[in-house]
Specification:
mainly beta
Length: 182
């Protein structure tokens, strides 16, 4: 009767087995790092299967730890050997999958510039023009950012930046006003 070392990729399902049998059938409960596993507060993400196994869906780094199952019946209580669950997180630096394109507009025209980046963790995406932030810090979206530029009076370069804990990348798109010589 013993769980073992388990390695699971983040967002995947981990199943911790508890091979306990007895007469009468034992009642099984689970402990993580010596504390009872609170299945009710997990919004159905963590459940105990009929076999007694503990199933953790969409695993997170916070699920990592030392798990033990406890089998109890009228004959007594047995603790399993502890098992360590390790949640592996893929780390991928940001990269662009949709780049903004250079655009030509008429004076007073408008344009939408789209920029999409991916990575793990997912990067934040912001727009800048000449060193000035066009995306408010608190409104910075993840992954995708569309910049709407209206009433364009002069040609300018717009820079899309993707930022995560693994790095910052940037790409620049040029918006040119037709007939503008600057």
């Amino acid at each position: 009767m013993g769980p073992q070392l388990k390695v699971v990729d983040r967002t995947r399902t981990a199943t911790m087995l508890c091979a306990a049998s007895g007469n009468p059938d034992p009642e099984i409960s689970w402990f993580k790092d010596m504390l009872p596993v609170d299945i009710s507060s997990s919004n159905g993400r963590i459940k105990q299967l009929r076999s007694g196994a503990l199933q953790i869906e969409n695993s997170e780094e916070s699920d990592q730890g030392k798990y033990e199952c406890v089998a109890m019946n009228s004959a007594g209580t047995r603790y399993s050997a502890p098992a360590n669950l390790y949640v592996r997180v893929r780390r991928v630096p940001p990269r662009f999958i949709i780049l903004p394109t250079n655009q030509e507009v008429i004076l007073g025209g408008s344009v939408n510039l789209t920029c999409v980046a991916v990575g793990s963790p997912m990067p934040y995406v912001k727009w800048m023009e000449g060193g000035e932030d066009l995306t408010k810090e608190e409104e910075m979206p993840m992954g995708r950012n569309v910049l709407e530029v209206t009433n364009i009076r002069e040609s300018a370069n717009y820079t899309c930046m993707a930022l995560s804990s693994l790095g910052i990348i940037e790409v620049t798109a040029q918006v040119t006003v037709k007939g503008d010589q600057t």
